[in-house]
Each structure stands twice: as structure tokens, then as C-alpha cells.
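Now read the record:
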Amino acid sequence: QVQLVESGGGLVEAGGSLRLSCAASGPIFSINVMGWYRQAPGKERELVASITSGGSANYLDSVKGRFTISRDNAKNAVYLRMDSLKLEDTAVYYCTADALTPKTGGGHNYANYWGQGTQVTVSS
């Protein structure tokens, strides 16, 4: 089974920085898109940033210029550098990956996988 494990969350003052990391493990042929979602209390989950295996990235408008997504294809890892953090960035951040994996008996599966989430809290 594919597992995604996030790290790097925590408490930071407004204006500060954090770097989130996520590594995928398990039987993986390849990963297409990797991304970061977040969910704040009482709000819907939203896509913060995504990146293809070729390095093409997209960002939520509110984080453009402050957050940078990157990945290491050899390590099946994705990172989110968050600078100039604001109070409204407080949320649980989830890593996702669209992975091609082997199927028992032959063939392959293509599915979306999620990490368990890591809390990011920005204080004033």
C-alpha cells in the first residue's frame, strides 16, 4: 500500500516561514501530480499548490509569491516552502499524490493517495 508521510508543520509567528515535506512509500511505478491541500476549522478543504512530474506548478491565488512547491522524483517526495505566513494560513495541510501502482495479478492501478495531515498554526 502506498503511504504518504508529512512532516514540518508547527507553530510559527506571522511573517515567519515553514517548510513542509512529504514522502511517498510503497509499491509505486510512478507519480504524476503531487500536491498540498489545507483545511482550516469550519472551512472546506482547498488546493494550495500542485506540481507535475515535469515540474509544472500551480498555486492558490492567496499563496502566490509566498509559497513554493517543489519535488524530488527520485525520492517520491514533495515539499512546500511557506514564507511570509499569515494568520489565515493556519490549517491542517495534507499531501496528495496521483500514483501508478502494481495490481495483484498483473496490471496497474492509478489512484489518488493522501497523507494524514500536519498542523500549521500561525500566531500573531
